[in-house]
Please model this.
Amino acid sequence: MNAVELDSVTLRYDDVVAVSDVSFSVEVGRMVALIGPNGAGKTSLLKMLAGLLKPTSGRIWVLGREPWRARGLVAYTPQREEVYWDYPLTVRELVAMGTVRRRGLLRWLDARDGRVEAALRLVMLEDLSSRRISELSGGQQQRAFLARAICQGGEVYLLDEPIAGLDAPSEAVILEILKKLRDQGKTILMATHDISATLEIFDYVALVRNGLVAFGPPSDVLTSENLTKTYGGAAVALHLDDIERVAGWR
Ligand SMILES: Nc1ncnc2c1ncn2[C@@H]1O[C@H](COP(=O)(O)OP(=O)(O)O)[C@@H](O)[C@H]1O
Ligand SMILES: [Mg+2]
Model:
């Protein structure tokens, strides 16, 4: 079965075409990197898949359902810039919010919930669970959001730039957690700018620049021609150097 399927999806905000006629599908249990420059429509795509925005035209299915009907099966983590980090919430409280849908609002802070503890352990934040999220490093904050997503018990993870701005060790920790989720049969779509980080572990890359430039296994898709279409000329040499160094395919 397909975890997600997009058929000629277009999204307009007034006169801006954020997503233009995008079609692709992803089988259950795959990891997909959505790669493209700022303004390419990555966030818009993830929000439509999460059922938070409706396409202007085209169709989307998530696990065979319309996105708003699949919300209980989807975990979405927003891009850093969309989070109000000063909110006085502890790590455990943030993670426990992931259980609201299943347990009901009144019980969401129940400290005995084993799922909260299990998620904190998986992202290695059990020792920091009483800290406020504003006091964490960027990598720890992203892990806290990942733990909240894990608590939602989703089958499909939609992650908006979870490794942006992280140092290499923090990035590696997040990618390890994502691999574990994939090994459990979860499907992951992750927006990122960091091509080299995704080469070795992602099943597919979707190159986006409002339209879909290319979709397929990283080694097929990450050609200089496709990267030029996605990023324009200047950035490409740099990316190709990265690809060479990390994957050694060229
Ligand atoms: N709420 C909005 N209103 C108007 N335009 C928007 C809105 N959100 C995004 N856009 C525009 O849509 C395009 C795609 O944005 P976005 O999906 O955020 O791309 P990305 O996540 O790849 O940076 C950009 O041109 C952006 O300026
Ligand atoms: Mg974005």
